[in-house]
Design a protein that fits this description.
- The chain has 100 residues and is an alpha+beta fold.
- It has one domain (26-96).
- The protein contains 2 helices and 4 strands.
- The protein has helices at 49-60, 81-89, and strands at residues 26-32, 37-44, 69-72, 93-96.
- The strands form 2 sheets. The chain has a two-stranded antiparallel ribbon.
- Strand 3 (69-72), helix 2 and strand 4 (93-96) form a beta-alpha-beta unit.
- The longest helix has 12 residues, at 49-60.
- It is elongated.
- The mean pLDDT is 88.
Length: 100
């Protein structure tokens, strides 16, 4: 967070510098249950559909139990057909949150 205002004595100018570089974007994705965190990943940059599919195939699906229910929101990257196929392949079900 960058402070945009400065303080100084009355009648004097506040002088200073502010950083110009913001650094890299860090995305955090994860899979949780009531008891524990099943899988998590920190990814530099934005998460796209291919990255999410790889996360689900490599991290989430191996830890899914038969009869488990995976709930996701309706973000476009969650709607890939591969996501549904690999989740249902292990006997789990996939549900999406309702649109409001």
């Amino acid at each position: 967070m960058l402070r945009l205002d400065a303080r100084s004595l009355k009648g004097t100018r506040a002088r200073g510098e502010r950083p110009q570089k913001r650094g890299q974007n860090l995305s955090v994705i994860g899979a949780i249950s009531w008891e524990k965190v099943w899988a998590k990943a920190n990814i530099y940059g934005a998460v796209d559909g291919v990255t999410l599919e790889a996360f689900i195939v490599k991290e989430v699906v191996p830890s899914l139990l038969t009869g488990a229910c995976v709930i996701m929101d309706n973000a476009k990257i969650h709607l890939g057909e591969i996501v549904r196929e690999v989740i249902e392949e292990v006997g789990a079900s996939l549900m999406y949150l309702p649109n409001n």
